[in-house]
Each structure stands twice: as C-alpha cells, then as structure tokens.
Amino acid sequence: MARILFFGKLADLAGGRQRELQLSDEIRSVGQLIDQIASDDELLGAALRQKSVRYIINEQIEPGDVISDKDEIAFLPPVSGG
Amino acid sequence: MIRVGKDKLDPGKELSAFEKNAGDAGAIVSFLGRVRGDKGAKAVTALYLEHYPGVTEHSIAEIEAEARERWAIDEPLIIHRIGHLSPGEPIVLVCVSARHRRDAFEAADFLMDFLKTKALFWKKEIGPDSETWIEPRDQDYKDAARWDDNGKDS
User: Fold this and answer.
1) Domain count along chain A
2) Does A47 reside within a domain?
3) Whole domain around residue A25: which residue ranges?
4) What string of pLDDT tens digits covers the 154 residues of chain B?
5) What ipTM, to 2 d.p.?
6) Could you tell me if residue A43 is inside a domain?
7) A-B contacts (CB, under 8 Å)
C-alpha cells in the first residue's frame, strides 16, 4: 500500500490528510498516480495537477518521479508560514 | 535550535534564555511574528497552521545552514507554532546572535523571508463565516527574491 498525504487546501478537498492506496502495477510515476486519483475524484485530480502543487516522495525534498506501492507520496499546495 | 510545535510561545523567556547562551556575541536580533486580527476589511478570529512533521524541520535546518554560510552568525533560534492560534498570539520567533549587528539583522531577515515563502507550513484564516487557506503575497515572494543573487544585500 502506498501512503498518500495531503496538506492545506488539498486535505480539505480530499476529505482527509492521509489515504492508503493500493497502486496497480502499471502505476510507476506521480503523474499516473494522479490519474488514478482523478478517476475517482475529478476535482481532486485537477487540484493535484496544478502547477503550484509540488510533491515529496518518502520525505525527500527533491524527489524523482518514480514511485512504487511502498512509498509515501505527499502533495503540497503553496506554503504559507510566518 | 529549531522548534515546531503547539506549545505556547513566551518571547521574553525565549529571548532571555537565548541571550544567556549567546557567549560573547556583540549583537542579538530577534523577530516576533504575531497573528493579526483582520485581513483588510475581513475579521480573522483564528489561524490554523499545519506542517509536515520531520520534513518541515529538515527544510528549516537546511536554510539555517545556508544562513550560517552567508553570514557570520551563531546558531539561531527558530520557533514556529502550529495548530489553532488567536489574534495577538505569537506565531514565530527568530533570534540571531553575531559578533556584529549587520550579520544578525540580515540573517534574521533572510530566515523570515524563507519561513514566509518556502518552509513547509500551511496556514488557514478562520473568520466569522468563512475559512481561507492563504498563500504568500507577491510582496513576500519579492522579499525572498532579494537573496537570490547569492550576494549579500549590503
């Protein structure tokens, strides 16, 4: 199972901060993951595809694009601290 | 030292402890950010902040290391709160000590610009009848871009 994390407005859209997802064998990239999410939830899929949304795989700040069923993938909308 | 959490923040106590540990530094600059009670005409009754545990702290540590490369400063204190905060409450405290004041001023300015635009925090403004996730203002991005040319803003 892959663990998908949503932050900020994406968590509101997803209806929660965390989701366990069984990734089918064909899913090997973040883009394909978003396609799978979008097939269930078009609105969330569109939000994840926005240019301003970044992702982090297994807590690596500068991840590649390749994912597997054991990964943690976090989707990050624009940040706002301070 | 980097602390991210829900604990109440007592700026006086933190600054006092920081000063006691500042050795022979000739200058200490501190910045305290507080929750504003309005956004233009709209009332803000509370802020809600979340972070990515572990990853947020790590990203702040990286920028702290960059600040220490760019300026002759000691280890700064960076405290950022998360959770629900009310107007007037402290939200962020940055303390920087250095031998000379210019390094401390600039490094604190740099660290705050980073915390506003790049650190992994998400902030929601809660009003009487609406909630809005907020993003940095154009001015925040412009402030952060001042440091991009890799030269000191001196």
Assistant:
1) 1
2) yes
3) 2-76
4) 999 999 999 999 999 999 999 999 999 999 999 998 887 778 889 999 999 999 999 999 999 999 999 999 999 999 999 999 999 999 999 999 999 999 999 999 999 999 988 899 999 999 998 999 988 888 888 988 999 875 555 4
5) 0.91
6) yes
7) 65
User: The whole model's pTM is what?
Assistant: 0.91
- Please indicate whether, in this complex, the C-beta atoms of A7 and B122 are within 8 angstroms of each other: yes
Q: Which of B54, B116, B133 sits opposite A81 (nearest CB)?
A: B116
CB pair distance less than 8 Å for A82 and B58: no
- Nearest residue to B90 (alpha-carbon basis) of B102, B81, B100, B99: B81
CATH at residue A10: 3.10.20.30
Minimal Cα distance from A59: which residue of B? B55
